[in-house]
DNA sequence: TTTATCATTGACGTTAACGTTAACTTCAAT
DNA sequence: ATTGAAGTTAACGTTAACGTCAATGATAAA
């Protein structure tokens, strides 16, 4: 059971971020006798999931939808499969970005060779 | 020579976007006798560059800096060496981005497996 | 020439994801 | 018991990248 600051520090975020995530329904930590937030391991696990999702370019709203679908639909797996498909679509998009960057890199290398050639011409 | 709407439509953006890009110094189209913006092929080329940069996740500010550097390099032909140096730096940066994206893709596949595993647990 | 669009500048509105401040309350250590 | 750090809610502030008027001028089609 950790406090809000301990949790925040261990995940590299601010307390405000944790309160905000709770505000939009992404986290639901417990409360102490004095009404202070207490974060259990399940909360930490969910936070880890959220931060990973963010890293992968999902908006908090998208992450919320995926988590809610998962929570609400434990018996019906149809929605869950759709969540997975959604993620796989994202992966394919990333693959596209990678290949485009590779193209850009090759373009730039060609552009550079043009100048390197000019430089050599001036040396001679 | 195209009007603002023609240009916007052909690039899939709105006129507001083009005015905004001009406002922050990303585009500098000419003006007609009646003070209306006219977009030449150079402007279209630059717009293409901007949109490609956006697609790769660069902010407009980052794109602005890159374009300014690019312009400096092109006008100062005496600084060929520095141009090449800059280009090589950019290529190394792009290589970093590519490898980061590849890592991201792998991690994301792991993230999805979290859901897929839960799916299998429900099956049993 | 008269519409019917289209364009211009200026200014305020919008959304996401928090930051910041205020005015308290609770906790931990002395 | 006191004090200083940390927590609470509520509400307003911030930034990027435009969206959306409003008032007015320019242009193209019939």
UniProtKB/TrEMBL annotation, chains A, B:
Keywords: DNA-binding. Pfam families: MerR_1 (PF13411). InterPro entries: DNA-bd_dom_put_sf (IPR009061), MerR-type_HTH_dom (IPR000551), MerR_fam (IPR047057). Residues 1-69 form the HTH merR-type domain. Gene3D superfamilies: 1.10.1660.10. One of its GO terms (molecular function) is DNA binding. It comes from the Bacteria. PROSITE patterns: HTH_MERR_2. PANTHER family: HTH-TYPE TRANSCRIPTIONAL REGULATOR YFMP, REDOX-CYCLING DRUG-SENSING TRANSCRIPTIONAL ACTIVATOR SOXR. This is DNA-binding transcriptional regulator, MerR family.
């Amino acid at each position: 059971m950790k406090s809000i600051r301990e949790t925040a520090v261990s995940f590299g975020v601010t307390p405000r971020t944790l309160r905000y995530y709770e505000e939009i329904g992404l986290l639901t930590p417990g409360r102490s006798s004095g009404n202070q937030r207490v974060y259990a391991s399940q909360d930490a696990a969910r936070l880890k999931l959220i931060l990973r999702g963010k890293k992968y370019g999902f908006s908090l709203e998208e992450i919320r939808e995926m988590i809610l679908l998962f929570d609400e639909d434990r018996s019906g797996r149809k929605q869950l499969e759709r969540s997975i498909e959604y993620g796989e679509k994202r992966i394919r998009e990333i693959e596209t970005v990678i290949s485009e960057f590779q193209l850009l890199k090759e373009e730039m290398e060609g552009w550079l060779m043009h100048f390197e050639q000019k430089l050599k011409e001036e040396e001679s």
